[in-house]
Specification:
Length: about 325
């Protein structure tokens, strides 16, 4: 019907439709018929260029990206999603969905900073949720807080979605190792929420948080006192064995050398210049040995807390869980 309309209701094949009319020929003068044919040709070009071709691009969305994502080839999936966003036309809703999928593909590669940028400024739940997660992972706490505020002020999000967002946002206290605030936040959320999944998740999280009290920690005062009594033993107590051996050897050599110079200078009746210099150097290393033991104990405690935090994050706030919460569907691999 469209072809018949463009061909002015005369029988017309697609080959004829695309034929280019000749407006000028040396053998024939320009006539009204040739001008009419020329104008009809450019009407056809306009129709193909502005209607048929763009419509052919609609619907070419993210099937290739979904396939690569399901296969675990996240770089190829990211490329396909970005190609879809750049070259193909989608509805606004489909475009936001592809942006969220591209963000997840980047997160799977550990590129959390760029995954935040591709989400744009949409206030869809999946965009806000992924924005909070990627911002927290990339250390952009202020951006995560901004997404969180937008989620709670949005009238489009349900109470269940806001509870999911609050559950994720509580991990900001984990990033700061503020376990008292973590306990307070999730205890309140478990009490107030009507979302069964959130309630179970917070219950498991609070149970795991109880392990924090049983984390073996090194006492900073004991580490310093041990190194004050015998250099290097405080580092050994903090399980920094190499540092402890080095501190013991250096301090032993300096103290022994200073003592030897004192004996030699006193027996020779010389002024205690060399022994004084070695004593100052030795005292400096002795004090550094004590402070080093305290720092070693502090680093050991931080390492233990970091491992505990990493365990909680991997168990409760991993990318698989985030993907399920957003509700994004990637189909099934072919």
């Amino acid at each position: 019907m469209i072809l018949r309309f463009l061909c002015l209701n005369r029988p017309c094949s697609f080959r004829t439709f695309l034929s280019i009319p000749s407006l000028y020929s040396p053998s024939f003068p320009i006539t009204k018929k040739k001008i009419s044919s020329f104008l009809r040709f450019y009407v056809k070009i306009f129709f193909v260029g502005f209607f048929i071709f763009p419509l052919s691009l609609l619907g070419r969305e993210s099937s290739h990206g979904d396939y690569y994502y399901q296969q675990g080839n996240y770089l190829a999936a990211q490329i396909e999603y970005e190609r879809s966003l750049r070259f193909y036309r989608q509805s606004a809703r489909e475009r936001r969905k592809i942006q969220a999928k591209a963000s997840l593909a980047m997160m799977r590669q550990g590129n959390f900073s760029r995954s935040t940028d591709i989400l744009g400024s949409s206030r869809d739940f999946s965009h806000l949720y992924l924005g909070i997660f990627s911002s927290l992972r990339s250390g952009k706490i202020s951006i995560a807080q901004k997404h969180y505020d937008q989620a709670f002020s949005s009238s489009k999000l349900s109470k269940f979605q806001k509870d999911e967002t609050s559950l994720l946002m509580g991990s900001i206290y984990l990033e700061n190792r503020d376990y008292k605030s973590v306990w307070k936040h999730y205890s309140k959320l478990q009490k107030d929420t009507k979302n069964e999944r959130v309630r179970k998740k917070t219950g498991r999280l609070l149970t795991d948080l109880k392990e924090y009290e049983s984390i073996p920690k090194k006492n900073l005062w004991i580490a310093g006192l041990l190194s004050a009594i015998l250099p290097g033993t405080g580092q050994v107590y903090a399980e920094h064995y190499t540092d402890g051996i080095i501190a013991f050897l250096i301090n032993t050599v300096l103290i022994g050398s200073a003592a030897g110079f004192i004996v030699l200078e006193s027996s020779g009746g010389k002024p205690p210049v060399g022994s004084s210099i070695l004593s100052i150097i030795g005292f400096t290393f002795y004090v550094a040995n004590i402070t080093g033991a305290v720092q070693a104990a502090r680093r050991r405690n931080y390492y233990q807390e970091r491992n505990f935090h990493q365990k909680l994050r991997n168990q409760h706030f991993n990318i698989d869980y985030v993907e399920r919460v957003t509700g994004l569907s990637f189909g099934s691999p072919h």
